[in-house]
Amino acid sequence: MTDVAHTRAELAALRAGLTGTVGVVMTMGALHDGHEALLRAAREQADHVLVTIFVNPLQFGPNEDFDRYPRTLDADLAVCRRAGADAVFAPSVAEMYPGGQPTVRLDPGPPGAELEGESRPGFFHGVLTVVLKLLQLTRPDVAFFGEKDYQQLTLVRRMVRDLDVPVRIVGVPTVREPDGLALSSRNRYLSPTERKAALALSAALSAGDEAARDGCSAQDVLATAHVTFDLAAGADARLDYLALTDPELEPGPGPGPARLLIAARVGATRLIDNVEIRLGPR
Fold it and tell me: Which domain holds residue 192?
């Protein structure tokens, strides 16, 4: 049985009945197998699982896809029930922002102005603001976020640490289609031709990972990923950024764990992906 709350009062009543460890999975709906992986991880590590479904207007720019972003609440609730979620909080925009869009928003600092933040100014202000609000409302012990949105995961961890928010943040590995495409709610926008072109993102990451395994330098890893993307993308995919950082998204990674991140526009759809790699000694 999955209970559904649409208001703060309903959520508070549901939350009061959840004893033991509570895990939260925050989503914008349009749930897919990647979200189910988050729910399974939460189910394994918490006594109760609470899911939030909210398309947050603060993280969409004026020319982005807020209006056409898929809203599939009935199907999403079926996924939550199948995955064993105890409760779902699905508020309206007015319920989340009763005074209109908030004038006070979280500043993600310099790391939030890079990569996604550089391409989408203000994006992480909106992300961190709604994440903090939802953490305050749901009061979880642990929160689960997908590694596909790696910069978001990293910034949420920093926010929780810097602001002393009493919650543990768990990253869950990216779920992929058999051909390597990272699962995303935006994949449904792709035409068959664009779907094929979108494989350029994962192909570039795989090539970079292979180069790192072969002992290539950071510069050569990036160059290999760039060449692979260009060859696979064709005319339907345009690179936004391709970056190699340390695990905390700092530039110039040294030997050891690193992160290779990519964003591209395929047709009218913007996709992101990333992969963990390991660089050898220089």
Answer: 185-275
